[in-house]
Amino acid sequence: MWHELKDAKLINGIIERIGQYKLNLTFMHACGTHQETLSRYGLGSLLSKVGIRIRSGPGCPVCVTTAKEFLQVMKLAERGKIITIYGDCFRVPVNGRSLMHLKTEGYDVRIVYSIDESVELARTVEKDVVFMAIGFETTAPSTASTLVRDDLPENFYVLSCHRFFPPAMIKLLELGEVKLDGIIEPGHVSAIIGCKPYKVIMERFKIPQVISGFEPLDIILSVYYLVRQIVEGEAKVVNEYNRVVSREGNQTALSLINRVFYPKDVEWRGFPVVPSSLMAIRDKYSNHDANKQFEDIISQVQYEPSPLEKGCRCGEVLRGVIQPTDCPLFGKVCNLENPVGACMVSVEGACRIFLEYQQLN
Description:
The chain is an alpha/beta fold. The protein is 41% helix and 15% strand. The chain has a 5-stranded parallel beta sheet. It has a 4-stranded parallel beta sheet with strand order 4-3-5-6, with helices on both faces.
């Protein structure tokens, strides 16, 4: 808990200062690691005592990837492709089935720790190897740096599910389902994109934002910086994580992303279409684009949620409309052993984090 931290005295002092303002505010973070820190150290409960509520947002890449995209990968597996995925994707359910189930049925699904493992696998087999590329700007550079290589095996393909992060926050604010007083922006993504994209959000929506690191003190300071903006009637982008995040971001990584991908409209789990948010692979690299090379297979995929999945409120969790504990399936029908939604599977999923720490405490 927070009082066992070496920064406990400082954290308590900041909390007391926040409490003096006697505010009633709702903030949102958009990062699974932020939620893990909030839950692990009991910071959410601590902040609620001084009038600060923090909602989860669309900060889990696996969670925001749609059921249809997982079905597309499953269909490719059923058609004899070798599917390579990160471990978080293995158990994501779609109507009671997952890539794990396909593996037990004899289809070739393999967990990899990097895209390089997938490339090396393709060199050793004759079958087509498809890498399911998931993540925001943080992980996209590794996919991009792979696709620009001249020595890729012909049987290696990427199914790009990468997303640009800022368009989702714009869409969320446009929807206006939750009155937000401030946003805690993700440190990992910001290390790549820098501060500038958030200024577009600030200018349009006049909402305070703080780019935050992941330590308990980072988050408490970020909340305090949001509170100060509100008290002073300001809306700025404050970079609390300036030991890692620069104003311009990582220009080498951004250049790679722009070289390989172009923005395309796409749905996110729980969201309507988010304009210019999919990282689609440019035609120059289409020989390794699973969407183009296997379009005849992928285009056949249709998704219709089962009655149980219709009861899953993961989409509302990702939009910050509800907390995980507000879902009637949470911890009962949907649990760590038998997840119904992606938010209960991924290590960055809010439902998983809430339930893990609920059980610990």
